[in-house]
Automatic annotation (TrEMBL):
Occurrences of domain RDD (ranges): 77-179
UniProt-listed Pfam families: RDD
Protein name from the UniProt record: RDD family protein
The UniProt record lists the keyword Lipid biosynthesis: no
Subcellular location: Cell membrane
Broad class of where this protein is predominantly found: membrane
């Protein structure tokens, strides 16, 4: 068992090792902590580097706690969804029938496929364009909230794409009643927080 911990700890970064023996000490078995301490000794991680990494870890942990404390509740998330849904619906009802009249759709199946695909495209275009460019949709502008990564930064394009298509997961809307972060937040590694700007 000791040997297993030694092998695992040898694959950890300096930062991970320091985190194990300081901040997360209570989460590990005594043998794992000893293996981490031995690995720190083997690498000759000096006190100044130890303090530098510990300080960096503490700053990051504080930022993560602030983001978590600043994340919005389910009611605000539902209001955002309701506003965005109304906007998407209005745009859809105005634009889709106009395009539909131009297309040579001859059967109910073609019409159904067109309507489903156009709705998915409307949802994708709406959320991706707004959230990637400004971290907000119209709902978030009204409720003064925004989308951030778990460490408080602006999400990358692929984070927003992932977040958007995860909204199509069945029951995604209900996941906010059981946890602060729904499926599309958890999977994409994002949060919705109060915009204090």
């Amino acid at each position: 068992m000791e040997n297993d911990f030694t092998t695992v700890m040898s694959g950890k970064t300096d930062e991970e090792l320091i985190k194990i023996v300081t901040l997360n000490r209570s989460k590990y078995q005594e043998q794992a902590i000893k293996a981490a301490e031995n690995e720190i000794d083997l690498r000759n991680i000096d006190a100044s580097k130890f303090e530098e990494i510990s300080s960096k870890i503490n700053v990051h942990e504080k930022l993560v706690r602030e983001i978590e404390n600043n994340s919005v509740r389910s009611v605000i998330r539902f209001v955002n969804f309701a506003i965005d849904f109304v906007v998407i619906f209005i745009l859809y009802v105005i634009i889709v029938p106009t395009i539909e009249s131009i297309l040579p759709l001859t059967s109910r199946v073609e019409l159904s496929i067109y309507r489903i695909l156009s709705l998915v495209l409307f949802i994708a275009f709406y959320y991706i364009s707004f959230e990637y460019n400004s971290q907000k949709t119209l709902g978030k502008i009204i409720t003064k909230t925004k989308v951030v990564t778990l460490d408080g930064n602006k999400p990358e394009f692929m984070d927003i794409v992932s977040r958007t298509f995860c909204r199509l997961i069945p029951f995604d809307r209900f996941s906010f009643f059981f946890t602060r972060n729904g499926f599309h937040d958890a999977i994409s590694g994002t949060k919705v927080i109060k915009d204090n700007v």
